[in-house]
Amino acid sequence: MRPKILVVDDDPHILQTLQMRLESLGYDSLTASDGKKGMDICKAKEPDVVMLDLRLPVQSGWEFLKEIKQTLPMTEVIILTAEASIEGAVNAIKEGAYDYLTKPLDSHRLRIVLEKALE
Fold first, then answer.
1. Model confidence, pTM
2. Within 10 A of 87 (CB to CB), how many other CB atoms are there?
């Protein structure tokens, strides 16, 4: 069974690009354009990994991260952000995120982080 990866981002281009990239790496990919839709998908499909943008409409990435770690603690969360900061990365890890990647995503680093998160 292929691992399920959910991408939660409000940028349709990023959703489409990541969905194609994940499928080419052999993963089943799911997408959501806001935190509320993402949480609904998490509860229904229980993805193995969530790739999460922090700036989201309806429910922020931070709120989503807290909720997913309470609801599905075994689901790993990889933060995606265009605004990288040491403080942001530290806060994300403290809140339970597995890793923190900056946009635009490096394909090689993405593959390595996903493989490790799924172990």
1. 0.93
2. 7
